[in-house]
């Protein structure tokens, strides 16, 4: 019979597994082995009052209204009526939010790549947990969201002249150009129905 080689059955018999000790891994009062700072895992919360560091070209920090997941919707809702009464255009720079008033302008900043897009709120949603805004397909393409499906973003409400989004200053005229005038409802045609004759 040939001698057992290293790692063979003879070594397995010698190296037996020892039971784990029933002591604490770190003795009481000992310093922690890692000094990793705490992480904020719940991003889908209101961030009113928080300051953002801005992006290159911005004139300074701005307030973040909300942080969380952004999703997008497109062809399946194209030309359907939104909650505001407008027809949804999947290539327009619009979005759905649960609480913001219609026609509010919001700068959506990707927390993945720093790109930004200016959108106008025209619809309600999203209703999935952890998501704070639903972008149109056109807006989602601007910040590279199409391939990912869901992306972490920060929302800033554009409510003052001189605020910036996407590296350029937002003008007051843009808001008025984005909000289409409400079309008057078409008049109903009246049809006269002849009375039924009695028999």
Task: Indicate the topology.
Layout: H1 9-14, E1 45-52, E2 62-73, E3 94-96, E4 105-110, E5 116-123, E6 131-136, H2 137-142, E7 151-157, E8 164-165, E9 168-169, H3 172-178
Parallel strand pairs: 2-6, 3-5
Antiparallel strand pairs: 1-2, 2-7, 3-6, 4-5, 4-7, 8-9
The radius of gyration computed from the alpha-carbon positions, rounded to a whole number of angstroms, is 29 Å
Which fold does the CATH topology of the domain at 45-54 and 62-163 refer to? Barwin-like endoglucanases
Number of strands: 9
N-to-C CA distance: 117 Å
Assembly state: single chain
Structural class: mainly beta
CATH architecture of the domain at 45-54 and 62-163: Beta Barrel
Major sheet strand order: 2-6-3-5-4-7
What's the helix count?
Answer: 3
Mass-distribution shape:
elongated
Determine the mean pLDDT: 75
Order of helices and strands: HEEEEEEHEEEH
Helix content: under 10%
The main sheet comes to: 6 strands, mixed, barrel
- In the CATH scheme, the class of the domain at 45-54 and 62-163 would be Mainly Beta
CATH homologous superfamily placement of the domain at 45-54 and 62-163: RlpA-like domain
Unreliable residue runs: 36-49, 51-59, 175-185
Q: Proportion of β residues?
A: 25-35%
EC number: 4.2.2.-
Keywords: Cell wall biogenesis/degradation, Lipoprotein, Lyase
Organism: Variovorax paradoxus (strain S110)
Pfam families: DPBB_1
């Amino acid at each position: 019979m040939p001698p057992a080689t290293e790692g063979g059955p003879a070594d397995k018999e010698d190296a037996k597994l020892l039971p784990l000790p029933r002591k604490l891994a770190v003795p009481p009062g000992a310093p922690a082995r890692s000094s990793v700072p705490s992480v904020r895992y719940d991003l889908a919360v209101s961030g009113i009052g928080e300051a953002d560091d801005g992006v290159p070209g911005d004139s300074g920090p701005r307030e973040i209204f909300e942080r969380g997941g952004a999703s997008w919707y497109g062809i399946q809702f194209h030309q359907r009526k939104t909650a505001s009464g407008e027809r949804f255009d999947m290539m327009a720079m619009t979005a759905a939010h649960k609480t913001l008033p219609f026609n509010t302008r919001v700068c959506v900043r990707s927390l993945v790549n720093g790109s930004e897009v200016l959108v106008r709120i025209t619809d309600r949603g999203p209703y999935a947990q952890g998501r704070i805004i639903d972008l149109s397909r056109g807006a989602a393409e601007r910040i590279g969201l199409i391939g990912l499906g869901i992306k972490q973003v920060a929302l800033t409400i554009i409510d003052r002249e001189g605020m910036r989004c996407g590296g350029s200053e937002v003008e007051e005229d843009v808001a008025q150009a984005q909000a289409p005038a409400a079309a008057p409802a078409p008049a109903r045609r009246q049809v006269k129905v002849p009375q039924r004759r009695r028999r």
